[in-house]
Amino acid sequence: MKKMLFGLSILASLGFSCSKKTDGSGSAASTAPSNLTLTGTVRPDSSGNVDFAAHATNAAVYTFDFGNSVTQVSATGTLTYKYPVSGVYTVTVVAKSASGQTLSQSITLSVSVVLKLVWSDEFDAAGAPDPSKWGYDLGTGNGWGNNELEYYTNRSDNVTVSGGTLQIIAKRENYNGSAFTSARLLTKGKYSFKYGRIDVRAKLPEGVGTWPAIWMLGDNIATAGWPACGEVDIMEHVGKRLNVIYGTLHHPGHSGANGDGSTTTVSTATSAFHIYSTEWNANTIRFLVDGSPFYTFSNNSSLPFNQSFFIILNIAMGGDFGGAVDPAFTSGTMEVDYVRVYQ
User: Fold this and answer.
1) Which band of pLDDT confidence, cut at 50, 70 and 90, is reported for residue 30?
2) Which CATH class, in words, describes the domain spanning 2-111?
3) Which of 148, 150, 231, 335 is an active site residue?
């Protein structure tokens, strides 16, 4: 049976099940749900919102399975669910009576989701980065847990906006007891988001020992600590493995070198701009370069990737992952054309 709702095809397929209970005499109890109906109205704004309505005689509660491993319970049988990504979904509702008997029905519907730009920095204003969007981690690399060699500053020598790009500059120089300086920018306390897609167009620094990163941490890091807060490494690159791009997730049981992720090769990572992206919802986290996915991770409610995360941009030097720094290294720059978040 086909219906057309706001221009989107909904294929209705009915599947009924009834578990019978008896009143002790062997006859079926009379309170089983019956006459179950289910409708799903896809809103025409490409938001992913679908308005569901289920009704059955003798039903006390309704359990919706949205066809993407997400379920929700409703006492009234009416609710709205927002799908995070486009797709064709088989939605099942189970009506349950007060005595525990059930009846189910399913519909299949097509949902189109168009993400909208909700936050960005285009780095068009020369000078220091926009202080309403970016703060800084400051201090010696020994404090970041990876035996890094740099001292992070907010000086214009290490971070500036010029010519339409953000430039994070790692330099060999003696500074407050460290052999290198660099910068680490973050949106903590200024902007964070839950689910969506983040695109960062960047050109990476050259030099063995450099360790540029575009990444995110959970808002609850101050209370939960790491890795319980979760970490999403949208892009990491180390100069000792030229043009190898890492996309990695860190969480309890999978931290450090045991993170969940993969790599891809970008032959011009240090000589040309590329778009490093992560698409993230309650079910999956996907890593892409220039729109091509190279790793997909299955998310679920037991993981820390279902809260708001803030954004970090930095270049580390050396450390456990970056390794020994080339003695000939003097400076390296990560240029960022833009950071864009879509939901």
Assistant:
1) low
2) mainly beta
3) 231
